[in-house]
TrEMBL record:
Every Glycoamylase-like domain range: 206-422
Alphabetical keyword list: Signal
Spans traversing the lipid bilayer: none
Gene3D superfamilies (UniProt xref): 1.50.10.140
PROSITE patterns: PROKAR_LIPOPROTEIN (PS51257)
Species this chain originates from: Paenibacillus spongiae
Span of the signal peptide: 1-18
Keyword Ribonucleoprotein assigned: no
Identification of the protein by name: Glycoamylase-like domain-containing protein
Length: 444
């Protein structure tokens, strides 16, 4: 992909709710102005069930080298941990403790042990973790690549837990962040991160198009030991197009909704714009609205879709996991996204901070279908457009993670409040030029 960048200044979204309520989980600045008891109960139910995945699907053997590592999915693929799932899980521990779902000391002990595992035992290269690890000992899962984005998610989780639990947990989280050698994963010829690395094949691919990677530049620019220039934030292609009659927005290669959510689960982009005038919060609002409208437009083709069943994102499907589930605009000519009538509840729920009313309506719709519910909450995905109807049998850690974190941010702003307090994050945002919209965005 070439490096020409299309620059778009997005107006502050009319759906941006600056003032949230203070509530029982942290008193931060959430999105919800008010929540009725029925909706609150549903949000609590899905959040608690999602948390249970991270609490129960973890290595709880404190004597093992893989203590605290969390399964990639369940019940399938036993024994394999996803580094991203573990990162979401570290943040989940803070949420669970604050909500009173587990004792705070038990959560602190689990967080400290997990960070120790990531710091000392998990197999890595130059501080970067392998995407998948064997849960029992932290060694590289067969054929797995070293992943910069999954490492960033793990660092996000560690720093968030560190702020919440403090003390030794914070010190270990800093040590974990400090050992990531960000320059090693950068190709100086194009000023972009490589996509992956393996000892057998070396580096491969580039993060040369907008996706979920904004967090990587914030962490790299804020690193105290191996920093990179904030200019990397502006070195990937920013392709802007509209869906139908909607507003234009910077879209990702496959049009998958998670790409507009993951970095926002931790960094509170509300009220910020970058040096090119992009409001990334508004961008995700428009992307979420476009994804919903696409589902509405296809409701006559795929029975699953409709105004309350929307959001195409990477998930399981009838034929296995598919990272191409998405909606237009995608790539450069709308050929890369794919749909077969499969909907992942995490897509709409992961956008609850961007599209509160539509996402809550989707939650009500999903909860009206008993076949979608299990011990860990809503199923990863389902498809009513085929015969027989299909419902995924696994739940996936990253989908439970984005659901849990975004619901918590909607309710309380708790994750945002913790993450934004971290000095690594503050330094990274400043180096990149992410400033409140009342300030001069051209200032260095």
């Amino acid at each position: 992909m070439h490096t020409n960048r299309l620059i778009v200044t997005l107006l502050f979204s009319s759906t941006f709710l600056a003032a949230g309520c203070s509530n029982d989980a942290g008193g931060g600045r959430g999105v919800a102005a008010s929540v009725d008891k029925t909706v609150d109960a549903m949000l609590e139910e899905e959040s608690r069930a999602s948390f249970d995945f991270f609490w129960l699907e973890a290595n709880t053997d404190a004597a093992s080298d893989g203590y605290g590592l969390i399964a990639d999915r369940a019940p399938g693929n036993p024994g394999v941990s996803s580094v991203a799932s573990t990162g979401f899980g570290l943040t989940a521990l803070a949420i669970g403790a604050e909500r009173g779902w587990v004792e705070k000391e038990a959560a602190r002990e689990r967080a400290l042990g997990t960070i120790d595992t990531l710091l000392w035992n998990a197999e890595k290269e130059h501080g970067f973790l392998y995407h998948f690890l064997n849960m029992q000992d932290g060694t590289r899962a067969s054929g797995s690549e070293v992943s910069v984005i999954d490492t960033a998610i793990a660092v996000n989780g560690a720093l968030t837990a560190g702020v919440y639990f403090g003390g030794e947990t914070m010190e270990k989280a800093k040590a974990f962040a400090d050992q990531v050698e960000w320059p090693w994963f950068r190709d100086p010829a194009v000023n972009q991160f490589y996509m992956g690395y393996s000892p057998e094949n070396g580096f491969s691919g580039y993060w040369d198009y907008y996706a979920e990677q904004l967090m990587m530049y914030i962490l790299a620019a804020g690193s105290k030991t191996h920093p990179l220039s904030g200019d990397m934030f502006y070195a990937f292609e920013r392709s802007s197009r509209a869906y139908g009659e909607g507003e234009p927005f910077i879209h990702s290669w496959y049009g998958s909704l998670f790409t507009h959510q993951f970095s926002h689960a931790w960094f509170d982009f509300r009220g910020y714009q970058d040096r090119e005038g992009v409001d990334w919060w508004a961008n995700s609002v428009i992307a979420s609205e476009a994804s919903r409208q696409h589902a509405i437009d296809l409701s006559g083709t795929f029975k699953t879709f409709g105004p309350h069943a929307w959001g195409l994102t990477a998930s399981d499907g009838p034929n296995g996991y598919n990272g191409r589930y998405g909606s237009p605009p995608s790539d450069r000519d709308d050929r890369e996204h794919f749909t077969d009538g499969t909907v992942a509840p995490a897509a709409a729920l992961g956008s609850i901070v961007f599209t509160p009313e539509a996402s809550i309506a989707a939650l009500k719709h999903y909860r009206s279908k008993p076949e979608l519910w299990s011990e860990y909450g809503l199923a990863d995905a389902y498809n009513e457009a085929i015969t027989p109807k299909w419902v995924g049998t696994d739940v996936i850690g990253i989908d439970k993670g984005i659901t849990l974190l975004m619901i918590e941010n909607y309710r309380s702003g708790f994750v945002w409040d913790l993450y934004m307090k971290n000095d690594y994050v503050q330094a990274g945002a400043k180096a990149i030029g992410l400033v409140p919209q009342t300030e001069d965005v051209t200032a260095n």
